[in-house]
Amino acid sequence: MRLAVIFGVALAAAAETPALMPWPASAKFDAGEIEMNVGFSVSVAGAGANDARVKAAVERVYTRLARQTGLPILPPRAGTQPPPALRVIVEEADHRPPQQLGDDERYSLDVSEAGIRLSADRPLGVVRGLETFLQLVRQNPASSPSKAPGFSVPYTEIRDEPRFPWRGLSLDVSRHFIPAEEIERTLDGMAAVKLNVLHWHLSDDQGFRVESKKYPRLQQYGSDGLYYTQTEIRDVVAYARDRGIRVVPEFDVPGHASSWLAGYPSLGTGAGPFHIVHERGDANGVIDPMKESTYRFLDGLFGEMAKLFPDAYFHIGGDEVNPRDWSNQPGVQAFLKKHHLESAPRLQTYFNQRLQKILARHGKRMMGWDEILQSDLPKDVVIQSWRGQTALADVARKGYSGILSTGYYLDLMQPASAHYRTEPLAEAAGRLSPEETKRILGGEAAMWEELATAENLDAKLWPRLAAIAERFWSPASVNDIGSMYARLEPVNQWLEWLGLKQRSNLQLMRQRLVSGMPVAPLNAFASILEPVKGYERHRSGWGVTTPFNRLVDAIPPESDAAREFSDRVAQYLTAPSVPAEEGLRKSLAGWVEVVGAARPVLESNSLLLEDLPLADALATLCRRGGEALSYRTEAPPAGWKAQALADIKDASVHRAHLLIAIAPAVQKLAEAVPQ
Ligand code: ACM
Fold it and tell me: Which atom of ligand 1 lies at the shortest distance from residue 448's CA?
């Protein structure tokens, strides 16, 4: 019942303001709307009208609109030209293959009595603008003057362009393999929120995920059979290109390379034996930077991969290398002396410089994590910062371009608000010159897959990735957390219409957990739980044999119900009122009922038994919360506050890697009780 109310609030807000995300650079709305109906069609004019991406994007609009509205909308039959409901104008063609950093993505979208008009100078502007058009489509409000049942697009005048040219998702497919189909679904979502770079983390200690024809032992010995064929890679790259997304491959070297050494042990530092890492904590394999054969191999492999991935950028990772692996190797001192390197860590500098030259020969610009910055490298190298805004500002000051990933690690289970508040230019204002600031190209969300699988990937990405996409696309002034959350809920629904499975897959996983019992009590119970944050869960171990079929795997990273309750507690504590108090009491009483209904389900299924202590803890929180509301105006019994806070603290501890997300708000209620 509570959920219905919460969704009601979010949807009411959405009906007033279209749930656009990312919010456009400029948007005005007017009274009036254009009806969507079965005869909907699109015309495309202008010098860029024949662009393959424009054509494909227009085709997709028909299917998407039909799906969103339930109207039997089809592309016009060959040879017919119905009057278009949407007129698209692409002023100029774009013949430069492949897509490039800084491509023109601007568009204008006007909806008025004159019709719907989307215009852009270049094809990518149309690809972006069509997503905005689809986000505008909504059911006619019952309050609209016509009251016509159906769907429409509100009158609007939108002028839009991105704030940053590099808006990416870094996706690890090594720790857990993500099949091509899921990658394509992720690309659909990325395009929907105007992200434009898929950074594909294709190799790590746990798996080398691309077929190499030149070095087939890489996938044969390094992937447990889970890798993309070259045909699949080409298909994904083409799929991404159709959606205006560049694909930057990452082959992480010289550390995180155990999977390479399984098939090619002579690449490694030391004698081996080397093997794929199957469990957390296994030793990392490190590539030997002192052997000439290493560079011949990398030249061969990168040459092959450079052809497979047409983007100008090529990511070599470079993170978390332990120089101790090199420092005790025979011959290291002589090598350092010969190459004028002061110590073993400088071997990575030497390695990066060699790699950069190899990549340049294959027409690529090198990219890597923070750690490669120690090297004296040409200034066209791009640095991806996972060490923070200060490190990123340092990158820009040294003359390099950089992107931010700190603060956007989706695997850490942070709320959307935390990512949304993370600002790529936080360290730039007043500290960097305009020229240096321009070197900060944008950012990438990062999804590491130690604890995620193809089954719950969507839920780990969405909808938080949409909030990050807004940070990268929209003006910095678009930063209202309340507005973001009000739009995030309908955007989340919209993304499911597009085919993402963040809700549906979790629902299936919870159905699996209840084994035929009703799932509603588990859903209600799960709705105020969140996975433990940060690396806490990683520490308890994970690996290829770890099952990810527990309740913690089957819930979203963020509880909407708990956030809404916390907001109401905050309002109540600032301005107490009887209705507000009643509302809070109702919520707490509702969760007591939820505990009662969920308990038999938890008791009956072996995979849920570990969650029973959470039911007890939730009951305690509800009781202590209710008492705290009473004792705001009447004196509590002696010792109540200390005991209540101790109980709340105990109930706040994570159990089965789960947190009860209303605990902090209940604690605030108890803290507010006078001594
Ligand atoms: C990283 O998180 N090691 C880049």
Answer: 2
Shortest-distance Cα residue to atom 2 of ligand 1 = 386
pLDDT, averaged across the chain: 94
Nearest to 209 by CA among 180, 168, 189, 239: 180
Is the minimum distance from the CB of 228 to ligand 1 under 6 angstroms? no
Report which ligand 1 atom has the smallest distance to the Cα of 369.
4
Is residue 12 over pLDDT 70?
no
Nearest to 468, CA basis, from 512, 408, 510, 424? 408
Contact 319, 386 (CB under 8 A): yes
pTM of structure: 0.96
* Residue 409 in contact with ligand 1 by CB distance below 6 A: no
Each residue's pLDDT tens digit, 398-408:
999 999 999 99
**What Å distances lie between residue 100 and 248, 386, 589, CA to CA?**
11, 24, 56
Closest CA to 12 of 397, 448, 569, 489: 489
Give the pLDDT score at 7.
32
The best mutation among 175, 251, 319 to test binding of ligand 1, ranked by most ligand atoms within 8 Å of the C-beta, falls on 319
320 pocket-lining for ligand 1 (C-beta < 6 Å): yes
Q: Under a CB-based contact definition with an 8 Å cutoff, are residues 370 and 385 in contact? A: yes
Pocket lining: 369 vs ligand 1, CB cutoff 6 Å: yes
User: If you measure from the C-alpha of residue 387 to the centroid of ligand 1, how many angstroms do you get, rounded to a whole number?
Assistant: 9
* Residue 15: predicted pLDDT: 44
Return the beta strands (E) in 145-275 as ranges.
151-160, 166-172, 197-204, 207-208, 246-251
Active site positions, annotated: 320
Q: What is the pLDDT of residue 4?
A: 29
Share of the chain above pLDDT 70, in %: 97
Question: Could you tell me the pLDDT band of residue 283, with boundaries at 50, 70 and 90?
Answer: low
Beta-strand relationship, 86-90 and 115-120: parallel
Residue 386 Cβ < 6 Å to ligand 1: yes
Residue with the nearest Cα to atom 3 of ligand 1? 319
